[in-house]
Amino acid sequence: MEVKINKGIISLIQGDITKQDTEAIVNAANKTLLGGGGVDGAIHRAGGKAILEECIKIGGCETGEAVITTGGNLPAKYVIHTVGPVYRDGTRGEPDLLASAYRSSLTLASANNIKSISFPSISTGAYRFPLEQAAGIALQIAINYLHEHDYIELICFVLFGQDAFDAFEKKLGQLT
Ligand code: ADP
Q1: Residue list, ligand 1 pocket, CB within 6 Å
Q2: What pLDDT score was predicted for residue 30?
Q3: Which residues is 119 bridged to in the sheet?
Q4: Which atom of ligand 1 is nearest to the CA of 28?
Q5: pLDDT of residue 43
Q6: Residue 21 Cα to ligand 1 middle (Å)
Q7: What is the pLDDT of residues 136-164, one digit of tens each?
Q8: What is the rounded CA–CA span in Å between residue 53 and residue 171?
Q9: Which is it for strands 66-70 and 116-119: parallel, antiparallel or unpaired?
C-alpha cells in the first residue's frame, strides 16, 4: 500500500527490513545499543561488526532518542538506532516516547540528507506496545513529518508478519 502525502510517499510492505535498499533503515534498539533480539539482532547479524563498533563508541541512547551509524554490509547506507519505550500500563509516557522515537529518527535522517527511510514497528515486539495504538502513532508522525518537510521522499514501514501489516494498513486508511 502506498499513499502520497505532500511531496513524499508512505509505503507499507510486509518483509524483512535488513533487505531494504532505502538510504537508511531504522533499528528498534535498546538503550545499551549493544544488540539484542528481534529486529535489532537481525540488523546486527546482517550488517556485520562495523555497526556494533560504532554503537560501542557512541555509548548508548535514551528512550525516545536516536543515533546514526553506517549500514555496514546492509544494502542501506545508514542505520538509525532509536529506542522505543517498554510498554507497562500506558500511563508512563509510552505514547509520547514512541512518537519521539519516530520523530527523532526522521529529524536525524534529514540532518544527514537522507531522502528514503525504512522503519520497523518500534516497541511492538519484546517491548509489548499494543500494535494498533503503535501503528496509529507511527503513521501520524510520518504523515505530519511529510507535511512539514518537502525534502524527504519515502517513508517505508517494513512490517514483519501479517498482523503488523494489517494493523498499519487499517490505520493508514483511517488517517488519510
Ligand atoms: P522492540 O523491543 O522495540 O519491541 P522487537 O525487535 O522485539 O523490538 O520488535 C519490533 C518489531 O520488529 C516486531 O513487530 C517484530 O515482529 C519486528 N521484526 C523482527 N524482525 C524483523 C525484521 N527482520 N524486519 C522487520 N521487522 C522485524
Answers
A1: 16-18, 28, 38-40, 42, 84, 120-127, 158, 160-161, 164
A2: 98
A3: 157
A4: 3
A5: 98
A6: 18
A7: 999 999 999 999 999 999 999 999 999 99
A8: 37
A9: unpaired
Residues acting as catalytic residues: 40
Q: What is the CA(28)–ligand 1 centre distance, in A?
A: 7
Assign 170 a pLDDT band (cuts: 50, 70, 90). very high
- Return d(Cα 166, Cα 134) in angstroms, integer: 13
pTM, full prediction: 0.98
Atom of ligand 1 nearest to the CA of 17: 24
| Domains parsed from the chain with CATH numbers | 2-175 (3.40.220.10)
C-alpha cell at 130: 499494543
Residue nearest to atom 18 of ligand 1 (CA): 39
Nearest-CA residue for atom 1 of ligand 1? 123
120 alpha carbon – ligand 1 mean position (Å): 6
